[in-house]
Structure formats: C-alpha cells, structure tokens
Amino acid sequence: MNSGSGIIKIFAGSTGREFAQRMCDFIGAKLGQSEVFKFSDGNTFVRVLEPVRDKDVYLVLPIATKPNDEFVELLFWMDAFKRASANSVTAIIPYFSYAKGDKKDEPRVSIRARVCAESIELAGADRVVTMDLHSPQVQGFFKIPVDNLVAMPILCEAIKTQHSLENLVVVSPDAGFAKTARKYAAYLKCPVAIGDKVRDGHDEKARVLEVIGQVEGKDAVIVDDFSVSGRTIISMTEELKRRGAQRVFACLTHGLFSQEGLEAIEKSAIEKLIITDTVCRPVQSGTKILTVSVAPFFAHIVRCIHEREPVSSMFYKVPSKLINVFL
Prior knowledge:
Elements: E1 9-12, H1 17-27, E2 34-38, E3 44-48, E4 56-60, H2 67-83, E5 88-93, H3 112-123, E6 127-131, E7 146-149, H4 152-162, E8 168-172, H5 178-188, E9 192-199, E10 206-212, E11 219-227, H6 231-242, E12 248-255, H7 259-267, E13 272-276, E14 289-292, H8 295-306
Parallel strand pairs: 1-4, 4-5, 5-6, 6-7, 8-9, 8-11, 11-12, 12-13, 13-14
Antiparallel strand pairs: 2-3, 9-10
Helix pairs in contact: 1-8, 2-3, 4-5
C-alpha cells in the first residue's frame, strides 16, 4: 500500500464528532467535511463532502449507545471512502460494543464480534484502532491490523491526582478482570483484591458474593472496562464498605451510563468515578464523575500510523503530554 498525502484526514461519524474534534485540535488538523442523514423510515445515508482520492483517511465512530445504527453507519462510511478512491481507511472505534460477543457459550447463539469483524473488513477497512476491548481476543477475528489501546496508564495518572497512594488497594469486580486489575495495582504499587460476582441472566444485574483480599481500613479503587447501569460498581462499593474499606473510588474506560445510572452513582458511597471520553453521552454527569480525555492518545497513535512509525511502545507507557487531559 502506497502512502497517501502527508495531511492527516480525520472524519467523524454521527456520534464521533466531539471525540474527532478533540483529536484534530491536538494535532492541529482540520476535521473532514461529511454529513449523515437519518430518513424517516430508519435508513442511514452518509456522504463525504471533500475529495479523498489517494488519501489515508481516519473515520471516528464509537459503537456504543446505539450499537446497531452506529455499526451499520460505520460500514457505510468504509464503503463510501473506498468508492471515493481513498488510499486506505482506518476505522477509529473508541468503544467497540460488540466485543462482548466473543464466544458461543450457549446453544444456538451468534458469535457477534466475529460477524462484526468480518463485515468491517468486507466493507473496506484497512485497519482498526480501538481501546480496551472487553475481550482482547476479538483482535484475532480480524485479518487486518487492530490496535487495541490501553487506558490503564491514563486512568492511573488520573487516580494520582485525586488520591494519595498510601493505604490504597485496587479492586477487580470479578475474576474475569483480575489480570487487568493486577496491572493497575502494579502501576500504582499497591495490593489487589478480587470480587466474586455472579450474573444470573442477561438483565445486567450482578450480585457480589465474596471479596478475596484485604480491604479493611484501606481506600479502594474499583477498576473495570465499562458499565451501563452502574449496579456492579455500586454493589461492590457497598460490599467494600461493609468489609471496612474507608473510601471508595472507581475508574472505568467506557462510561455508557443512562441518566438513571448516573443518578444512582450520585446517591452511592462512591467518592469519585473516573471515566474516559470514548463514549459521548448526552446526559448530565453529576458531581462525582471526572472525565479524562483519551482523544489526544488516539490522535498521537493516528499520527504514528500515518507517518509509518511503530506504536508498540505506546501500549503501556503513555507520553506525559497525553495524560491528565481533563474535560
């Protein structure tokens, strides 16, 4: 594949404009001109409003709060850029919702992440950049390069601005996130505790049965990749308090909260919840939510990709200029 023009061309889908604009502001680029229409029958129409022939283009669109509409729109964008003779098309998907569907763990169900990966490739994507996939093995469903960025260093640095690191413990809400929680603990140089959580159905309700590790008298930081209702971190907070934890913080990469979920967090014993801006939510965030932007991180990665520089060193060591960019 030949390199396109030296100018970085970043475009945005309907729910990625704020994030894409932050990326452009960081690297001094101009957001590409495009438009999206939603017709009364539910059909989506996308159009690129400037030439992209022989350009390397980057399309920003999270698959998040309206995953079906956003996923179909993403496919249409990939096709539109390819038919406009773009040299290459990189899908910037800050949150990839269908990464949760990574396996056939029940009879007669779809492996949704694999279907999405194949569709994105067939639509014309040459590369995918995302962050904290719920199941990292989803990268293997693609035959094109996938950069799964890690928010952990950025979130850890944000934690440092809110809390002295004395007497701190990192808490994973379940065994599935324990490996990542240990990386948080290693970065913050503190111990880790693990919750034993059970989910009885597909209703997003989970119960905390046990906490493995010492939390009494400590300040706890619950870490997870995403939350929709906030129930898991709220129930974990209640259990930590019951076991003698002093203060409870939480940090998530993807905050998909509804207004009701945010109100529940405001009423909970959580002292501060730190999230990134991978998901654009048109709701009031409240006083307990602190948002740190990862758009500069994505913009830096895009610049590395565009200039054919390696990005491997960026996964666990983020330059200081990309950290603590609070909104």
